[in-house]
Amino acid sequence: MRRLIPITEQFQHYLEGVKESFWGDLYQRTRLAWEKFLEAESLRERDRDLGVKDHERAAARRGYRNGFYTRRLVTVFGTLKIRIARTRQRGFPPQALQRFQRRAPEVMLLIREAFLRGLSTRQVGKVVGIITEGVSAQTVSRLTRSLDGLVRAFHQSPLQDEWAYLFLDGVSLRIRRPGGRKRVQMLVAYGVRPNGSRELLGFLRSAGESQAAWEGLLQDLYRRGLKGEKLLLIVTDGCAGLAAALQTVYPRVAHQRCWVHKMRNIYEHVRRRDYAQIKPLVQAIKYAPNLRQAQQAFSQFRARWQSVYPGVVRQLEKDLPELLAFYQLPRHLWPKLRTTNAIERCFVEVRRRTRPMVCFVNPASVDRIIFAIFHRFTENWRSRTLRLFTHAA
Question: What are the boundaries of each domain within the chain?
Fold first, then answer.
């Protein structure tokens, strides 16, 4: 029986060195071969146009040589530096060069993916420069404009009327305008099917969160096919304009207000020294085991704080039906349905991705980034469902 010779760490390093040397040499030789081939083809085309070869005299010549200019072509083999022959009238780029793109598809894909993974345009140029010739921030921006067609296709894509839960919220971004930097709102719709699969359904850039702006997004969802026949609950952050828009587009669907936003709103209108006493009473409403006990917990809150904070108590009582709408659904879904945390987690990635930019240069760049982030989320979610909703199905 043959004995196996153990592979030492030194031998592994040796093998890696051999591989690196082999492929590096192969890529270099391939790059040089392409440079020579393309330059020779350019020379042949120039001589064919002039009617004479190099160092040849002819009375019927049609012009004069005028040296070369250099053109760079980024490929997977590195940057090709090609000398292009020219006459006094024009240059002669080889016909084979036209079959290449200015940058090879693999390099263009690397640039776009690095940009979408969170690197700024300048950082992308530095990363690409490690393996080939660096690219400018302007070049990266120009290449990412290829996303515009995908953004338009996303906004026109049809929706199946199969969604059971709809989460709606907005995220604020800064954009550069002629009058200076201004904030815009990105309104976003996030849907969950009964089996727990999820998807970001739509987004709309607007000046604010008015009723008209939210109606624009909701009407777009309705036009694309989300009629709401199977919707069980719509969860929002409590925006008044959004609540009014829901009554226009989806008036028959139950509306749940986010408890996180509501508690934040309550704390803004009470004294800090009262936080410790108010918090457990509010949480008793939020975490009550059933609707009846939640209403009883509110009665206790009202009895304790009516005289001190009448405005807070009155507003909480007004919002209570929408804050307790989640009790209509199965108990194990309550943690997911009483807040907009599901969509807020997406916004964390949006803020992380847009932080290096500080400010968007134009509206189209906002749409590209938001689409790219949401598209990546959707792709990741195809094989991962929300467990709580899966159990309900």
Answer: 7-100, 163-392
